[in-house]
Specification:
The protein is built from 13 helices and 20 strands.
Length: about 450
């Protein structure tokens, strides 16, 4: 039986391990933390079960939705029957971005032309720019080398239009503002999610803490598939040998494998890649990182009668009702997600509270008289790679120069940005590469005794 070791228990590692097990490999998954889920996980805080950040998916995220089916977690998420995004502005004003039953891209025409946060002429210009974006080739190196912000300016998109519409999508999906993002990556997101299939952009989200999906359900599915999951055991070295690889991990005997799938963030992958892999670690470093900050606010009463909403003309980007499943028995728990949070990442808790509690009160009239029972912050300094101009050429595919050594992670070249969908797709591609690698031969699934 062929032996595969997957290093990393995020979504890419989970997907890769399941696919390799399905191909009759003996699979061991190593995860340095005490749980699975990677960047999409839960933890306990102040008597609540809290997600580290707010992770949504779209109907077009077919690989992630397939993974949910495989781990038996489809009933733990909700998926809109039809795209419907509430957009809030200070003063309690609300608008809805809803799709119609018309074919794409006409399914969004009514929502754009009725959008109250832009003047009528700006709405018409917005519709023309969306039409032009359909023609951008995401695989064109020239498009990747160009800033999305520059392209928007060329297509007569005002600062107000960028902030009130374009960055509602760009910022949470790319974790960058439009001026800093690759045109090719932005075009891919809009084309996949909004411009080619009228149902593609319907929003899905977890109805339970993410840990119940990406850890509990995933571990159960991995065990059922015969995958050995070893938590709190991080790889420290991957050593090529004549007949495969030796994976060293602190405090235990090394593991022997025919193939290794390295499914960790690109910064850590650069430290674990053996010499001769053919992966340029300086190019990986060039991908950089971009931060996300999440604010967790518990009120003494319900202040938001929606599962989620976007914000305009406010520092609040997106706000989610996370009361259900958190363990809160009175009041409401809201999570505010701040992507591309370079301005917020180093602010103190008091500074963030002083800025965002009044901002929430401006958006949510019922919050003005409510009492804040708890306020805390989670920060992901290196939440994603930077999908900046030129980043596509820096993202490697799954294959390395060493047969059997394979890369996975949302930072690899899946076409998708750093999303749950991109992570799962990378794991699937890595498993396919690992199981078909030339020179892979069956071997016993035994540990190598440390010298």
């Amino acid at each position: 039986m062929r032996r595969v070791v997957v290093v990393g228990g995020g979504l890419s590692g989970i997907a890769a391990a399941l696919d390799c097990a399905l191909a009759d490999a003996a699979v061991t998954l190593l995860e340095s933390r005490g749980r699975l889920g990677g960047a999409a996980y839960s933890f306990a805080r102040n008597g609540l079960v809290v997600d580290n950040g707010q992770h949504v998916f779209l109907r077009c995220c077919t690989a992630y939705r397939e993974l949910l089916e495989r781990i038996g977690a489809s009933d733990l998420v909700a998926l809109q029957p039809r795209l419907s995004i509430p957009v809030l502005a200070p003063g309690g004003q609300i608008a809805w971005l809803r799709r119609s039953g018309l074919p794409a891209p006409l399914h969004l025409a009514g929502a754009v032309l009725r959008y109250p946060f832009l003047a009528l002429r700006r709405r018409a210009s917005l519709a023309l720019a969306m039409g032009a974006l359909r023609g951008v080739d995401p695989d064109d190196p020239a498009a990747d080398a160009r800033s999305f912000g520059d392209w928007l300016s060329e297509h007569r998109q005002s600062r107000a239009a960028i902030e009130a519409m374009w960055e509602l999508i760009t910022r949470p999906t790319l974790n960058l503002v439009a001026a800093d993002a690759s045109l090719a990556q932005a075009a891919y997101v809009f084309q996949q999610g909004l411009l080619r299939d009228r149902a593609a952009g319907d929003v899905g989200y977890a109805q339970v803490p993410l840990g119940e999906i990406h850890d509990v359900a995933a571990r159960r599915a991995l065990a059922g598939a015969g995958v050995e999951v070893r938590l709190r055991l991080g790889a420290t070295a991957i050593v090529p040998e004549d007949d495969g690889f030796r994976i060293e991990a602190g405090g235990v005997a090394p593991l022997a494998a025919d193939a290794v799938i390295l499914a960790v963030p690109h910064v850590r992958a650069a430290k674990l890649l053996p010499a001769g892999s053919g992966v340029d670690v300086l190019r990986l470093a060039g991908l950089g990182t971009s931060p996300i900050v999440n604010l967790h606010v518990v009120y003494d009463r319900s202040v938001l009668a929606l599962p989620f909403a976007a914000g305009v003309r406010t520092p609040v980007q997106w706000v989610f009702d996370r009361t259900r499943g958190s363990g809160l028995d009175h009041g409401q728990y809201l999570a505010v997600s701040l992507s591309a949070a370079h301005a917020e990442i180093d602010l103190t808790i008091d500074e963030l509270r002083g800025r965002f509690i009044p901002a929430l009160a401006e958006l949510l009239p019922r919050a003005r008289d409510a009492t804040v029972k708890s306020f805390f912050v989670t920060r992901e300094h290196a939440a994603t790679f930077r999908a900046a101009p030129g980043s596509r050429r820096l993202r490697p595919g799954p294959r390395t120069r060493m047969p059997g050594l394979v890369l996975a992670g949302a930072w690899t070249d899946t076409g998708w940005p750093a999303t749950m969908e991109g992570a799962v797709r990378s794991g699937q591609a890595a498993a396919a590469e690992a199981m078909s690698a030339p020179g892979m031969t069956p071997r016993a699934a035994t540990a190598v005794v440390a010298a």
